[in-house]
TrEMBL record:
<keyword id="KW-0067">ATP-binding</keyword>
<keyword id="KW-0547">Nucleotide-binding</keyword>
<dbReference type="InterPro" id="IPR012675">
    <property type="entry name" value="Beta-grasp_dom_sf"/>
</dbReference>
<dbReference type="InterPro" id="IPR013029">
    <property type="entry name" value="YchF_C"/>
</dbReference>
<dbReference type="Pfam" id="PF06071">
    <property type="entry name" value="YchF-GTPase_C"/>
</dbReference>
<dbReference type="GO" id="GO:0005525">
    <property type="term" value="F:GTP binding"/>
</dbReference>
<dbReference type="InterPro" id="IPR006073">
    <property type="entry name" value="GTP-bd"/>
</dbReference>
<feature type="domain" description="TGS">
    <location>
        <begin position="281"/>
        <end position="364"/>
    </location>
</feature>
<dbReference type="Pfam" id="PF01926">
    <property type="entry name" value="MMR_HSR1"/>
</dbReference>
<comment type="function">
    <text>ATPase that binds to both the 70S ribosome and the 50S ribosomal subunit in a nucleotide-independent manner.</text>
</comment>
<dbReference type="InterPro" id="IPR012676">
    <property type="entry name" value="TGS-like"/>
</dbReference>
<dbReference type="InterPro" id="IPR004396">
    <property type="entry name" value="ATPase_YchF/OLA1"/>
</dbReference>
<dbReference type="GO" id="GO:0046872">
    <property type="term" value="F:metal ion binding"/>
</dbReference>
<dbReference type="InterPro" id="IPR004095">
    <property type="entry name" value="TGS"/>
</dbReference>
<dbReference type="GO" id="GO:0016887">
    <property type="term" value="F:ATP hydrolysis activity"/>
</dbReference>
<dbReference type="GO" id="GO:0005737">
    <property type="term" value="C:cytoplasm"/>
</dbReference>
<dbReference type="InterPro" id="IPR023192">
    <property type="entry name" value="TGS-like_dom_sf"/>
</dbReference>
Length: 366
């Protein structure tokens, strides 16, 4: 799971990334490693593992992880190679979705690159660079197919040529491709173009500490961002990157105390991780035993054999069936033995679609 964090200078992007890396580096619950200077790997919080660890008296607990890339180098003209533009765009190509940090606070001591605070202008600055880059990609693709399409010798080429023109027109109107209505077949074809604006986006409204503490989380800037995001069915998470950075340095008890003091249910970072998980269409199935309890990440709709392959390719290859109990049923019973006695464990075959919270033991033979 790779997510790229983008944003203009002085919007709080680096502060948020520092919070992510510190949380990972200093909390046992969020193992962190530096793959390269701009990549942080942080665990996906999952309270179910804490419960299972106690139930099975497990020796080890392994969370699933998510990677955040701090993508730097954006200026106007990035699509033309300005600043670190080419590097910026190549980094975005590598991620599965985009976390776009938008400044939603006033502070005369933190100068905005454009001289004033306007979250919609900031969003559109980045979106336009991605759109320009996609238009260039479409131009090259259209150039390659146009002769074949117009010759009439290939019906498929004609259909794809018309689809390419439809995509390019949508981009030229200033819209990201993710907002274009496409059929299932068209979506499959467009996926192969590897366009930047097809990537799902999660907007982060970065508010001031004062606004968060006073409960003014829906300030005028945030309202504008939410209105903009709703038009493309994107989600907005409101956080204070400054407070997140402070929280990330605290031990669990101190962190809990600080959250209570601010009247917050959970850290913004946890909200961001859960929303990112949802954005990518992911879910977790679980394995539990004395040796370890572990969460495994798969896409929604994954069938049992494919999920087994996440653990080991041999298990997928030799899959016989999956022995499954839902987390809720197991917890309701209090133990594996009691859940088996009540008939909550069941055997599922190769067509079974995994559900979030399935606790599974795969039976296989190789």
């Amino acid at each position: 799971m790779k997510l790229g964090i983008v944003g203009l200078p002085n919007v709080g992007k680096s502060t948020l990334f520092n919070a992510i890396t510190k949380a990972g580096a200093e909390s046992a619950n969020y193992p962190f490693c530096t793959i390269e200077p701009n990549v942080g790997v942080v665990s996906v919080p999952d309270k179910r593992l804490d419960v299972l660890e106690k139930m099975y008296n497990s020796k080890k607990k392994v969370y699933t992880a998510i990677e955040f890339y701090d993508i730097a180098g954006l200026v106007k003209g990035a699509s033309k190679g300005e600043g670190l533009g080419n590097k910026f765009l190549s980094h975005i190509r590598e991620v599965e979705s985009i976390v776009h940090v938008v400044r939603c606070f006033d502070d005369p001591n933190v100068v905005h690159v454009d001289g004033s605070i306007d979250p919609i202008r900031d969003i559109e600055t980045i979106n336009l660079e991605l759109i320009f880059s996609d238009i260039e990609v479409m131009d090259r693709r259209i150039e390659k197919i146009v002769k074949l399409a117009k010759s009439g010798s290939s019906k498929d080429a004609k259909v794809e040529y018309e689809l390419m023109l439809k995509v390019k027109k949508h981009l030229e109107d200033g819209n990201p491709v993710r907002t274009l209505e496409l059929t299932e077949d068209e979506s499959e074809i467009v996926k192969g173009y590897f366009l930047l604006t097809t990537k799902p986006v999660l907007y982060i409204g970065n508010i001031s500490e004062d606004d968060l503490i006073s409960g003014n989380v829906e300030n005028d800037y945030v309202k504008k961002v939410k209105e903009y995001a709703s038009k493309e069915n994107s989600e907005v998470i409101v956080i204070s990157a400054k407070i997140e950075e402070e929280l990330s340095t605290l031990e669990d008890d101190e962190k809990k105390e600080m959250l209570e003091e601010y009247g917050l249910d959970e850290a913004g970072l946890d909200k961001l991780i859960h929303a990112s998980y949802k954005l990518l269409g992911l879910m977790s199935f679980l394995t539990a035993g004395v040796q370890e309890v572990r969460a495994w990440t798969v896409k929604n709709g994954t069938k049992a054999p494919k999920a087994a392959g996440k653990i080991h390719t041999d298990i997928e290859r030799g899959f016989i069936r999956a022995e499954i109990v839902s987390y809720d049923k197991l917890v309701e019973c209090g133990s594996e033995a009691a859940a088996k006695e009540k008939g909550y464990f069941r055997l599922e075959g190769k067509d079974y679609i995994m559900q979030d919270g399935d606790i599974v033991n795969f039976r296989f033979n190789v």
